[in-house]
Amino acid sequence: MSKKPVRVAVTGAAGQIGYALLFRIASGEMLGKDQPVILQLLEIPDEKAQKALKGVIMELDDCAFPLLVGIEAHSDPMTAFKDTDYALLVGSRPRGPGMERAELLAVNGAIFTAQGKALNAVASRNVKVLVVGNPANTNAYIAMKSAPDLPRKNFTAMLRLDHNRAASQLAAKTGKPVADIEKLTVWGNHSPTMYADYRFATIGGESVAKMINDQVWNADTFLPTVGKRGAAIIEARGLSSAASAANAAIDHMRDWALGTNGKWVTMGIPSDGQYGIPKDVMFGFPVTCENGEYKLVEGLEIDAFSQERIDKTLAELQSEQDGVKHLL
Ligand code: NAD
Ligand code: LMR
């Protein structure tokens, strides 16, 4: 017997990431090739955005995806999030060349108060929320704080693009297949302060840190390359990353929903105080996923270099949180 359809809300559905994301959700790459989906797409009420959304829906129709059993277009989060099981909050303004992330908080923060409230009012009580729109950690924090009737653990921020970027850099450095990398993580904020940490990583059971054995490369090449990759792509493309961001969103939701078989992945999740990160800070952590739940990997040793990096990214997140107090 075929599975009951699930409802997937996507905001910013007519944007760049939306265009790279929706077709993959509809083809079953996110929730499985046996899981029918209903897409509930949200765009701003602006005529041009709604018209563009109609065009995207025409293309979705034209794919005749067997798993796509419904498509809805919305301009109000209160209808877009009705009964939704999954919510991918992408819609918000991206950075342009030379723009700082902090500037985005001012323009994007308010979106997530309204959307958190709407999720609180109308979404499924088990909704899994992924915030992609930047600054992703703090926007996820705002949405979580605006949805007091939903479990805190349902709100997550996207650090998976950073995780994938780090894996790709390590594969290039070691000359090994990216698929063989295990136990990699990215701590903290989706910003240049993030700490991509390969101290525990292995390839085919061998330690990556031992294979590379070069702390100067780690500090002076690897960390800045991963941390500033978003800006490098904006500089090269004139637009922020889209296909790789959509790919990371698919990875994040698929792993959360379907499990990781013990493999570590990175998710931005509300802290419960582990590793000295204060409760509720939306922080990138190593997790494993099973039965639709993520579980933090606990008990890892934090050396002095790592502690310094973690403190720095935490301080940035706390100052972002301070900056949005008025919205909560
Ligand atoms: P885009 O400008 O191409 O598309 C954004 C879309 O969102 C637009 O169509 C816009 O009309 C819509 N939108 C704006 N406000 C909205 C609202 N309140 N409700 C619904 N829709 C709304 O941008 P993009 O390239 O798709 O990027 C979207 C966001 O994702 C940006 O904030 C970008 O910085 C962020 N991003 C995050 C990561 C990450 O790793 N977390 C990676 C890449 C991009
Ligand atoms: C990215 O990491 O590619 C995005 O968050 C875009 C940005 O502003 O860096």
TrEMBL record:
Location of the active site: H190 (proton acceptor)
Annotated positions binding substrate: R95, R101, N134, R165
Top-level EC class as recorded in UniProt: oxidoreductase
Domain of life assignment: Bacteria
GO biological process, one term: tricarboxylic acid cycle
Signal peptide positions on this chain: none
Key words, A-Z: NAD, Oxidoreductase, Tricarboxylic acid cycle
Segments forming domain Lactate/malate dehydrogenase N-terminal: 6-155
Protein name, per record: Malate dehydrogenase
Organism for this UniProt entry: Pseudorhodoferax soli
Gene field: mdh
